[in-house]
Design brief:
mainly alpha, 21 helices, 7 strands, two-stranded antiparallel sheet
Length: 441
Amino acid sequence: MAAVTTTLVRLFRHSAGCRLTPTRCLTTSTLRGHWKALRPSLAIILSAGATFFAAKTYHELTTVHALKQRRKDEELAKAVKLTSRERRFIKFSSVEYNSQLYMTPQDFLDSVVESEPRPRLKRRVLTEKELEAFRSSTPPLKKGSSHMFRNLRDKGIISYTEYLFLLSILTKPKTGFRIAFNMFDTDGNERVDKTEFLVMENIFSHTWRDKRGLGADGEEEPEGVSKNPLDQFVDDEQGLQRRHAVDTTLLLHFFGRKGSDDLQYEGFQKFMENLQTEVLELEFHEFSKGLNTISEVDFARILLRYTYLSADQYDMYLDRLLDRIKLEQGISFNEFKVFCQFLNNLEDFSIAMRMYTLADHPISQDEFHRAVKLCTGTSLSRHLVHTVFQIFDEDGDGQLSYREFIAIMKDRLHRGFKSYTKNEGWDAFKSCVKQEMKYVM
């Protein structure tokens, strides 16, 4: 290749000096020899260039719409500085209506347990007929269950502000259910109507306006603009903050098809419990493969999958557990659920630990068990506590540095708002094979 380049340079210089074409300047036997030697190489280069151009053209012609849609979404995100929640909502929303993006119930579940949305050709534009079918398939609040989102799948729509509301539910302890309900109950009559619930969306819209410099808190609305949250909207050109042109699945579920039902605390509490259970069941069954229990290693994988740990740190925790757990007993769904409910009380646990140890001393399994009981009112099984210590007890002395444990577990509460590059691609495959081989051996 170097010889070809050198010859080309010589030919160029010679032709430039003669002010003639390269062919007319090849008068010496030396240059004729170089030119003859160069022709096969030039033929190869030209052939390779033509092949590359043809392949590139074919690739562009056969690119699937999913890639074009993803690029469009990325360009959309770059146009305005979006938050991680906004980017994730745009990424996973698979339908739109009246230029507003919506998630389906299945999209929402995917967004909290998966790193990437399901493959799709393009975002589906809903018709009036499809929306009417959604209205018919949405169950009333009294018929809600921990399978509602999975049963509805793609037969429903969830707006961006409702997406934020649902995410907040997943990390709320039971003691926070009443506080959340009271935030909606603006008139204090122990019931929430449709207008009160939509106030939340109006607040989010104003937050968006303030963040982008479109208005300040306390600014009066122009004359003629309705103050009813049903009529107000902000067009952010992202399809996130518009007023709903139709009732969403949550509005239909909470307030009925006519929108005249009231939402009482008992129904609101049951909805929150059902949603938390549904997401936890989805995670658990992903690893249980139809069995009643998951392995201790799979339990560790679930706990660590949303953390900021590097690949080496991630492997270190699993290796530690594999070395210490000699007899597999398994973790039941009820044990897993109680532990995840404890994680929603992590802030209270952290405060209790700081008051108890004062000097940040490590804690024993008995102390950990007692602190969880005081914070949540429920007890973790001794086996689960033992498993947690085998994962996080660094030197195996039976004492847990609760500060490290809390820091890592707080990452889990950020589900859906971080990149998942830690366990992707070839490195992820090698890591998975490595761990599975250890587990088998």
